Structure formats: structure tokens, C-alpha cells
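INSTRUCTION: Work out how this chain folds

Fields: amino acid sequence; protein C-alpha cells

Chain under study, with its fold:
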Amino acid sequence: MATELFAPHRLDALHHLRSDKVRELTDHVARLAREGTAVNIGRVAFTTSLNLISRTIFSIDLTSLDDMSSSMEFQEVITAIMEGLGTPNLSDFFPVLAPADLQGMRRRLARLFARLHAVFDAEVDQRLHGRDAGQPRKNDFLDVLLDVAAREDGKDLLDRETLHRT
């Protein structure tokens, strides 16, 4: 995957995307400054990062700088996942207790990851339907992943179940 996804030529090809996202961010902050509106730096930075990642993977923006409610949900889910992964769990100290999930950490994280997977699955389904309908390739990371999954030697490497476990 490293040779397919993170090759220097692929990353160099995305330079314009990074520049566009920074320009969008500075334009948004400048507009808010002209209006005299406060800027939630954490929210706009998160939204810009999320859109950069989603544009790189799916060729779409998942959120908008002007609609902070949509990015708020993503930020809450990501924050909750990070907190859950960083919280000490009894099974970290007593592995024999892991199957019991006494603190409910595994169930909570599974629900959070399921919310992310629902968004990602919808994007994958949409791309697959587009391919079936003859829509042109976008040559983003999702196209590369789908191409690898479609190869005969890729079927065992990359399928939805594998992606959901990682």
C-alpha cells in the first residue's frame, strides 16, 4: 500500500489540494474578521484538516467551514475515540478481564467506529455505483484502494471486513 498510496509522485500531485485548503481557511478567517465574528480556531483547523483528508481520499469535502455543525459531529466522534483509546482500561493491567469488558470501553469504541464506518461505507458504495454507471475515475486514494481490492492478488488483502477491523 505504501508504494501505491504514499509514493512521492502521488503526494506531489496533491500539493495543489493542500494549497487550496489553506487558501479556503485564510479566506474564511478573513471574512469572519471583516464581519467582526469570533473565530473558533480549533473548529476551523479541525474542519480544514478533515476536508483535506476527505478530499485526498474521496475527492469530496465531508464538511464545510460555513456549516460548523457537520464538522462538530466528526470532531466529537474523533475526540471520543482518542479519549477512549487513551483511557486506562482494567484489561490493560489484567488481560484475563478483557473478555468481560467491565468498563464498557470496547462496546463504546465499537459504536464510535461504527459511526465513522457508516460515512466511509456510504462513500465507497457511491463510488462503486459510479464506476458501474461508467463515471470517470477520480484517481484519488479510494480509486487506488478499489483497484487493489479488484486485483486477483488483492482480494485477500483488502475487503470491507478487513477495513472494518483496522
